[in-house]
Amino acid sequence: ERSLTDHAWEGCAEICFSLLYGIPSDTQVRLACTMIRRYLPIFKARWPAITWPEHILNGMEQWIEQFGREVPEEPDAVNPADSAFLFCFDALLLALVYRTNHAILTSSCVAAINSAITARAANVWVADDPEAVKMWEAHGYCPGRSVVENTAAAAVTEREWRVVAKWLSDE
Prior knowledge:
Layout: H1 2-5, H2 9-20, H3 25-46, H4 52-58, H5 60-67, H6 80-97, H7 102-128, H8 130-139, H9 151-170
């Protein structure tokens, strides 16, 4: 709770890792997929022709058998939110391939969860401060106007970590 209210997102990820480490791989992967699926409709609305994220989520084992850990290249001109979302699949597939290695499994699942949360927050930031996004695209970090400093994005990040906390407490 302290990490959530203080917006100490690294602390949320560390606690998530501690809670997930050592529990069954299917449970960890299910949580990662739950968080990834929360952004999927946003991505599908923006990129309807790109269907491989949904194929992975609906058939992870088949994907690994056919493609291993490989995912297609990002489309041109993805925004920061979509880029964070697409990274989830690198982490998710790594977790699946190394599901018997607790350290790799859990760190990869937490990376996927964190990236899915970042995607949701960045999506709000893109809508809330398009000028900052343009500055970020041109120059990189934009002091005072980044996604982590954006009030709306911080609220979304907190909400998404609360979803993780509730999921864990319900499990």
